[in-house]
Write a structure and sequence with these properties.
single chain, 370 residues, mainly beta, Neuraminidase, four-stranded antiparallel sheet, 23 strands, globular
Length: 370
């Protein structure tokens, strides 16, 4: 029997659309590793193993197949595990094959309060050797929130460190303070000669006016530092951290003061940034998702996601997929919200799979692959 022409056309269009629909469907994540205690950051070792930080202060190996978690490594600095503080991010030296240094960010306490610090140690066996602190947030303050603490190496092998404003607000605009800043350092903690010359600023400051940037990654094409930061009540932001830029906090935000009625009239400073400030690429309003780790997708395993940005959410308990056109966010999609788990970090594995680090006392590494 010959089908009517209209019916044949409909079937042909459906057949052509089916592969696209299948490609666009996000694969279900599977458990790669379980039993982690409040994991925060991870890094891929050349031999296939992972280094994973846990807020309590334990740095562990996870085997290449995800089935084994080691005992804690030695040589890790003492951390202040309180509130949002603890052992936080981890990064490998860009020349790890010849200088196997590991960099850790963490909350450090002394008699003046606590602050974000960065230490460097040489990985030898099951320990870090010659561990040295290369950066300390100044000043230390009392409190247990907004440490920032993401570590990202630039293409020129300098190190970006994101720093929260420790829930203090105004210091984010104080150029004599590290609070609410992104700093750029050499690998030994010294200041790069080509850092921006911001009048009155500490020389390590790269950008300022940030609230709590907990996710950061280099753009794969431009090499620029992109970051996500927590807003107050709503107003979470995606920004490009450019040299000398002022990102507005606490003078401007698309979020509202805590306790304000949900809406737009309460936006801090009216929301829109001043002419001498840098506005966000996108915001989450009126409800915060509490964005954390983020990663760009290379497309090695998911060609249809090439160039997409993936952002973990704590309050939103989802993985956000952002479609980009240059610096414009043209679409956003929340994936895996049914998991109801806080996604603390997102990394693309060497094979192109996405690894998601869930933040709980029974934390997991989830693998998204096909």
């Amino acid at each position: 029997m010959t089908l009517p022409l209209a019916r044949r056309r409909a079937l042909l269009l459906a057949a052509l659309a089916a592969p696209l629909a299948r490609a666009a469907t996000a694969p279900a994540p599977v458990t790669f590793t379980s039993g982690l205690d409040r994991p925060w950051g991870l890094a891929f070792l050349p031999d296939g193993r992972l280094l994973v930080t846990q807020k309590s202060g334990a740095l562990v190996f996870v085997s290449a197949d995800g089935r084994q978690v080691s005992a804690p490594l030695g040589g890790v600095p003492e951390v202040a595990d309180s509130g949002q503080g603890g052992l936080l991010d981890v990064a490998l030296d860009p020349d790890f094959a010849t200088r196997p240094d590991v960099y850790l960010s963490y909350a450090e306490r002394d008699g003046l309060g606590s602050g974000t610090a960065v230490a460097r140690g040489r990985l030898a066996g099951a320990a870090l050797r010659d561990t040295t602190v290369i950066f300390r947030q100044q000043p230390k303050v009392w409190g247990s929130g907004h440490f920032g603490a993401r570590l990202v190496f630039a293409r020129d092998k300098t190190l970006f460190v994101t720093l929260g404003e420790r829930q203090k607000g105004e210091p984010a605009q104080d150029l004599a303070s590290h609070l609410g800043k992104v700093v750029r350092l050499n690998r030994d903690g010294s200041v790069p000669a080509d850092n921006p010359r911001i009048p009155g600023a500490r020389p390590e400051i790269w950008s300022y006016g940030h609230r709590n940037p907990q996710g950061a990654a280099l753009h794969p094409r431009t090499g620029e530092l992109w970051l996500v930061e927590h807003g107050p009540q709503g107003g979470d932001e995606l920004n490009i951290a450019r040299a000398g830029g002022n990102y507005g906090w606490p003078q401007r935000s698309f979020g509202c003061p805590y306790g304000a009625p949900v809406g737009e009239d309460c936006r801090i400073g009216g929301g829109a940034h001043a002419d001498d400030q840098v506005g966000p690429l996108t915001t989450w309003t009126p409800t915060s998702i509490a964005p954390s780790g983020m990663a760009f997708c290379s497309g090695r395993m998911f060609p249809e996601w090439r160039g997409n940005l993936f952002v973990g959410a704590l309050a939103g308990t989802a993985l956000w997929r952002l479609t980009l056109d240059g610096e414009r966010v043209v679409a956003r999609e929340a994936l895996y919200a049914s998991l109801r788990e806080r996604i603390r970090d997102v990394r693309e594995a060497p094979d192109g799979a996405l690894l998601l680090l869930t933040d709980s006392r029974q934390g997991r590494i989830l693998r998204v692959a096909r």
